[in-house]
Amino acid sequence: MLTTTRARRKPVSPAFKLAKLCAAAALDKKADAVLVLDLRELSSVADFFVIVSGTSEPHLKAIADEIEKQTIAFGDKPRAVDGFPASHWIVMDFTDVIVHIFHPKVREHYALENLWGDAPKVKV
Prior knowledge:
Elements: H1 14-28, E1 32-38, E2 48-53, H2 57-74, E3 80-84, E4 89-93, E5 97-102, H3 104-110, H4 112-115, E6 121-122
Parallel strand pairs: 2-5
Antiparallel strand pairs: 1-2, 1-6, 3-4, 4-5
Helix pairs in contact: 1-2
């Protein structure tokens, strides 16, 4: 008798679900260049970074507001929010997930994608 075994999938962590939710919320507000980095094997800072771009101060605020609204509905909320639209960078700290909302020039300057270049990218 021939039997086959199925590869077991790793359980999806709450942090993974939250990172995907944050990315989807940003996309709902037309964020650009949405990227989720899996840092679990690389850092103790967070499990995931979500990095997105917005085109203007109102756009950055709208993205942050939508992420907060959807994560509260999910049963979570940011532990801290730092920055503001005029700074062109908003950071939302969910402990295991950190969301960076950048104006493109600021995103290019800090280049988090390069700093964490070894991190696997999560399909959004």
